[in-house]
Amino acid sequence: MALAPEIPGAWPGLGHALEFRRDPVGLLRRGRAELGDVFALRLPATRVTVCAGPEAHGAVFNAPEDVLSVREVYRFTVPIFGDGVVYDVPPEVLDEQMGFVLPALRDERLRVYARVMQQETEAYVDEWGTDGEVDLLTAMNELTVFIASRCLIGEEFRRRLSKELAHLYHDLEGGIDLVAFFNAHLPLPAFRRRDRARTRLGELIAGVMAERRAHGRGGEDVLERTRRSPACSSRWSSRASTPVRCSRPGRARCCSGIPSILRRSSPSNSAFTVTVSS
Questions:
Q1: pTM of the full structure
Q2: Is 23 inside a domain boundary?
Q3: Which domain holds residue 128?
């Protein structure tokens, strides 16, 4: 089988790593403009095939796991999501975890989240006053985190943390680096900040769940909907032992897999799909 054509300009040993680190979107756009919807680029010891456009996306997202393994490509996200969830589990367990969160992503729930987005945006902008200057990049990052935390984890979590949460997510995001693609556990400052942020978030979320159980309180957020999901309850009430553990005894730590549901349900949302071969 013929390999996809490769973007010109690769350096010996490094391939396109420097250009990819400096301007990844620009490199991908250049490859598509010069070579079409399917092309390749070189990273150290790795050949990356890029599939762009709806037709190429369809071939990738409909391919079975034994042909194109999502788990292998996204292993660098394990330190962010945690052990035993999402891309750290076999495909059949990942599919179960996706089933746990589906009730929280149905139409009526999305309408609730839309109202939350409006409330959070209006409250955030009200703090600006009538004049002054705002760094939009920083502001939009904070607002996005506030909306996400309230929709995913709940209002009490959002109100308690304020801007600390934005800094924690920023440190988590800093762990998504080209170096992590090759070794996500190197003792680098960005990776240490990532690990500290994830530990702190885990403590905070565990505290919310413990408080809800202790006082019999719930919520309308994704965390609570997933925790009360019939699929989650029936799965773990019928099977007592499982390699996937969480802070609630006997149940899967299913909430950590929420971001990956977006990939499964909306494969055409992104302009590029990437597969990797050595």
A1: 0.64
A2: no
A3: 86-277
